[in-house]
Amino acid sequence: MSPTHLTATHRPSGPLTVSTVPPALPPRSAHGARAAGRSDPGPSRPAWSPGSQPDQASTTSQRALAERRREEERHIRSLARIVALACVEAELGLRPARQLSAWLDLPTYGKMTRRAELARRVRPDRGVAGAPQALGSRCCPAGDGVYEASATIQLPDRVRAMALRIERHRDRWKVTALELG
After folding, report:
1. Calpha distance 164→139 (Å, rounded)
2. Are 89 and 95 in contact (CB under 8 A)?
3. Angle ∠(5,8,14) on CA atoms, nearest 5
4. Mutual orientation of helices 56-92 and 106-122 as an angle, nearest 10°?
5. Backbone phi and psi for residue 127, each to the nearest 5 degrees, phi listed first
6. What DSSP string describes 98-141?
7. At CB < 8 A and 24+ separation, what contacts does 157-163 make?
8. Pair 91, 57: CB distance under 8 Å
9. pLDDT tens column, 40-69
10. Edge-to-edge strand order for the sheet containing 159-169?
11. What are the tens digits of pLDDT across the range 95-106?
12. CB under 8 Å, gap of 24 or more: what pairs does 23-26 form?
């Protein structure tokens, strides 16, 4: 390393200046409840007092619910990536369209098989230089047991995007609508 590089990345040696300490806050009566327009300041207790802490059981259940929601969203994002990649592969002729039946509901499956058949007719002998890759996915809840997701797929010559609506049917997640761009 050059001496110039070392001096540019390290603090210069010399006296350090210390800023002044701010003055103490005024008494509570000057800035508390009366200053806010309330006549009664209310009970005076520290913020950490037992009366102000939430119930331990409700906090635990809220954490468990939040963790369950995060896990569900991870699963939905993964499902969106897998389904988007499989749909693009089916459209390119790299995967049989019937393999999509496990993930798609009947009307969406019919739409996707028709799309794959039309794509096969338009370019029957076109080979793909490389396999498509899923770049990423996002999801957001749209209701109870309903998510809307998007995924991006990298092809050798371009990037494709897909929007999906994923709903819980019995104990499984099914894609009930999709748009492939």
Report:
1. 9
2. yes
3. 130
4. 30
5. -100, 150
6. GGGGGTB-HHHHHHHHHHHHHHHHHSTTPPPSS--EEEEEEEEE
7. 157/129, 159/135, 160/88, 160/132, 162/80, 162/83, 162/84, 162/87, 162/88
8. no
9. 555 555 555 555 555 666 788 899 999 999
10. 133-143, 146-154, 159-169, 172-180
11. 999 999 999 999
12. none
Q: What is the pTM of this model?
A: 0.65
Domains, the chain, ranges and CATH?
A: 63-180 (3.10.450)
The answer to whether residue 27 scores a pLDDT higher than 80 is no
Cα(84)–Cα(138) distance, integer angstroms: 12
Q: How is residue 1 written in tokens?
A: 């390393």
Task: Encode pLDDT of 152-166 as tens digits.
Answer: 999 988 999 999 999
Q: How far is CA 151 from the centre of its chain?
A: 11
pLDDT per residue over 111-144, tens digit each? 999 999 998 888 766 665 678 999 999 999 999 9
Q: Is the per-residue pLDDT at 7 higher than 50?
A: no
Partnered with residue 162 across adjacent β-strands are 151, 180
